[in-house]
Amino acid sequence: MDWCFMSALWYLLPVYVAFHFLCFIFADADLTLLRASLIGHRPETTLRGLVVWVTGASSGIGEELAYQLAKCGSRLILSARREQELMRVKRICLENSDLKDEDILILPLDLLERTSHEEKTQTAIQYFGRIDVLINNGGRSQRSLCLETSVDVYEALMELNFLGTVSMTKQVLPHMTQRGSGSVVTVSSVVGLAGAPLATGYSASKHALQGFFNSLRTELTDYPKILISTVCPGPVQSQIVNNAFTEELSKPVATVGNQEHKMPTSRCVRLMLVGIANGVKEMWIAQQPFLLFYYAWQYAPTFAWTITDLLGRKRVQNFKAGLDADSAYFTKPKTS
Question: What does the alpha-carbon distance between residue 190 and residue 139 come to, in Å, rounded to a whole number?
Fold first, then answer.
């Protein structure tokens, strides 16, 4: 009997390996998240009725989060600096879901104004009575070379992306520990796991978030019902490049290329909600070959450095030539 069992395992092993290999080749998320999307809890069931606070909700990933959460039946707190844009997002949420006007609170917020975060948090709690999920999505990217970048830009990136997020988390977390449950979900990046040229400050801020939340997670072992989750997207279609910092605080990005080669925002957000619904602690979300890049950095860093150097050199060359640093990987620039 034991021999038959071992023989069966021997024959099933290649099938198991082949299945996971095929999943990886065609996947746009890590295997844990992919498995959850196939056989895990559905966001429409798990997130219905929960109070979800989304920062950076006026555009990009945050805006799409609002739309999909509304369809799931979540009650929403939408925050960003631009109140008119938040009102627009709320209107679309109401038009495309069963939510009522009172189910969505517009709460303008600036991550840099940390002294206001306590008051904003109390307003949110008083309005709904609780906060079930905080999604730290607000922040800005960077497109500039280190040698040309002002230290003021690095300071601004750390103040906004790191300290602003830490401040919001510290305001909401005591409420969750008192209740004994909740989720803090933070949008990091692939550059929170690996370095990338033209984003030294942005990458540093995301590395800082990874370290902070990995450490925080271990501090909360006495609260097993509190999820600390980080999301590491690769290139996603959004306005993050348009609003990126450059070498000077007030200088806009010169060239924003075509976004079509990047992952659709709707797909990225769907995977995020699957991860939240299934308690995934870290989510890798990217189309190939970017997902392979995640795995290389995790399991074969020496090989990953070689690939990074090659791609990084091309990225810097494109940037210096006045091309979009991202889209020039996939499209040949027109020459006269």
Answer: 15
CB 172 within 8 A of CB 220: no
| Beta carbons of 70 and 99 less than 8 angstroms apart | yes
Q: Which residue has the tokens 């999920």?
A: 133
Closest CA to 316 of 117, 146, 189: 146
CA torsion sign for 173, 175, 180, 182 is negative
d(CA 63, CA 70): 11
Sequence-separated (6 or more) residues with CB below 8 Å from residue 63: 57, 89
In a domain? residue 118: yes
For residue 8, is pLDDT > 80?
A: no
Biggest CA-to-CA distance, the chain: 74
Active site residues: 202
Helix/strand/coil for 230: strand
Report the SS3 class of residue 77.
strand
Is residue 271 situated within a structural domain?
Answer: yes
We report the CATH number of the domain holding residue 41 as 3.40.50.720
CA angle 192, 194, 197 (to 5 degrees): 100
Domain count across the chain: 1
In the block, residue with structure tokens 């895990």: 40
Is a pLDDT exceeding 80 seen at residue 15?
no
pLDDT in tens, 43-96: 999 999 999 999 999 999 999 999 999 999 999 999 999 999 999 999 999 999
Residue 33: give the domain boundaries: 27-302
Burial of 253 (0-12, 13-18, 19+ CB in 10 A): middle
Threshold 0.85, pTM exceeds: yes
CB 92 within 8 A of CB 57: no
